[in-house]
Amino acid sequence: MDFLQQLGPVALGSRLRRLSEHLTGEAAGIYADYGLSFQPRWYPVFYLVAQQPGITSQEIVEQIGHTHASVSQIVKELVRQGLLVMAVDAQDQRRRRLQLTPAGHEVLPSLRVQTEDVGRVMQVLVSEGSPGLWQALTALEEQLRRQPLRARVAVTRAAREGAPVVVRDFRAGDQPAFRALNVDWIERHFALEPADLKALDQPEHYILTPGGCILLAEMGGQVVGACALLKQDEHSYELAKMAVSPAVQGRRIGQRLGEAAVQRARALGARRVYLESNTKLTAALGLYHKLGFQHLPQAIPSPYARANVQMELVLH
């Protein structure tokens, strides 16, 4: 039996590397079949420059997702091969814009024909063998963008080793984690809205500066949960942006955060804590009831399309 297959998902990186090596080896032979003296690793950079003349190396990094070091190395190789040329940006002397050389333009027609042929074959290969493969890879990349694999493993390890959960205040450098946790649950159930982006992209400006606070749950050095109190008026706060990493759900972290938020609201002199939710979020609604929140008898206007539940906790 194939050992990597026997190992299962833990060997995903090795499986993908093996597949990549196979395809790269085949690609080298295919280029030769079309009379092209071309390296497979050059393809995305070269073809992107062909499609977007004047593009910079940094813009290539952003569009193909490779590291800056990798793109820079490929650009240098293509320049040495006489296929690309770098020109100084007329408006910014520090920037170099990339263009195909005459030799690069000579290669391009054959490369386009080869690309079309390979594209047809790969379309059939993917659709017949694994119809959902491309979508699955896209979903996997998106999940890892939201929370890198290293962070996920660290959370799982901390949970296994019984690391304590610490609830602390937001501090400089926490915005990416605060944003990622909330984007993850919102996009799993709903869609991001403008009001979300304001608070998640600039929490200091929209939450902290007006007098609110953000509480974070940390485990093993990783932020695994978050919630915020948004100041509404002198005696009212809104409980919002509560999120817990799926990797640690079931450890009562949401309850810890909720209790800490209510306690903080009391310390801030609040007489009322308000929140908005949705009937789909049954676990969250159960937590809010446990904390003492009650449904409002009459709905009030909300900036969120998904808000169909409104609750309040009256503090004495």
UniProtKB/TrEMBL annotation:
Gene Ontology molecular function: DNA binding; DNA-binding transcription factor activity; N-acetyltransferase activity
Keywords: DNA-binding, Transcription, Transcription regulation, Transferase
Keyword DNA-binding: yes
Domain (HTH marR-type): residue spans on this chain: 9-146
Chain ranges of the N-acetyltransferase domain: 165-316
InterPro entries in the record: Acyl_CoA_acyltransferase, GNAT_dom, HTH_MarR-typ, NAT_camello-type, Tscrpt_reg_MarR-type_CS, WH-like_DNA-bd_sf, WH_DNA-bd_sf
Organism the protein comes from: Hymenobacter coccineus
Superkingdom, natural source: Bacteria
Annotated protein name in UniProt: MarR family transcriptional regulator
Entry-linked SUPFAM superfamilies: Acyl-CoA N-acyltransferases (Nat), Winged helix' DNA-binding domain
Keyword Plastid listed: no
Pfam families linked: Acetyltransf_1, MarR_2
